[in-house]
Write a structure and sequence with these properties.
It is a single chain. This protein is an all-alpha fold and 173 residues long. The protein contains 7 helices and no strands. InterPro entries: DnaJ_domain, HscB, HscB_C_sf, HscB_oligo_C, J_dom_sf.
C-alpha cells in the first residue's frame, strides 16, 4: 500500500486554496483517534502503528497549513518535485530580497521596534499577494514553471518572516 496523499488524509481535494479552519478541525478529530495515549494498554505493534499514524498526520497537517509548504507539496505530487537548493533565475526577486535584507539590518541596527512592525505588515501583504498569484497560476497547468518560481518566493518570505519574529523578540527583551 502506498503512502496516502496529505489531502486524502483530510478528505480534501488537492488544491492550493484551503479552508484552514476546516483543516484544523479535521486535524484535531483525526489526531484524537490516533493519539498514542489511547493505545497505552495496546500491544507494542499497535502502539508503534498509532505513533506512526500520529507522526504522518502531524507532518501532513504542518505541510498543508503552510502556504509555501503546500505549494511545494502540490508541485511534488503533480510530478514537478523541486530540489530544495537550486540557482534561482529570478533577478527581479533577488533584487527585492537584497532590499528587504538591508532594510531588516537597518531595523536591527537602529533597534526600531515600530519599524519592525511596519516591515512585518509589508511582508505579510507580500505573502498574501504571492499566495493569490500561486493559486491563480496553479489552476493553469501551462504555468507550472511560474508556479515553481512563486513557491520559491513564498519560501524566502517564510524564512524572512521567521527572522523578523526573532528580531522582534530580541528587541522586546
Amino acid at each position: 500500500m502506498g503512502i496516502p496523499c496529505h489531502f486524502a488524509l483530510f478528505e480534501l481535494q488537492p488544491s492550493f486554496r484551503l479552508d484552514l479552519e476546516q483543516l484544523a478541525t479535521r486535524y484535531r478529530e483525526l489526531a484524537r483517534g490516533v493519539h498514542p495515549d489511547r493505545f497505552a494498554d495496546a500491544s507494542e505493534r499497535e502502539q508503534r502503528s498509532a505513533l506512526e499514524q500520529s507522526a504522518r498526520l502531524n507532518d501532513a497537517y504542518q505541510t498543508l497549513k503552510s502556504p509555501a509548504q503546500r505549494a511545494r507539496y502540490l508541485l511534488k505530487i503533480s510530478g514537478h518535485e523541486v530540489p530544495m537548493e537550486v540557482t534561482v533565475h529570478d533577478p527581479e526577486f533577488l533584487l527585492q530580497q537584497m532590499q528587504w535584507r538591508e532594510e531588516l539590518e537597518d531595523l536591527q541596527d537602529s533597534a526600531d521596534l515600530d519599524g519592525v512592525a511596519v516591515f512585518k505588515r509589508r511582508l505579510k501583504a507580500a505573502q498574501e499577494q504571492l499566495n493569490e498569484s500561486f493559486a491563480a497560476c496553479w489552476d493553469d497547468a501551462a504555468q507550472r514553471e511560474q508556479a515553481e518560481r512563486l513557491m520559491r518566493r513564498m519560501q524566502f518570505l517564510d524564512k524572512l518572516t521567521y527572522e523578523v519574529r526573532q528580531l522582534e523578540e530580541r528587541l522586546d527583551d
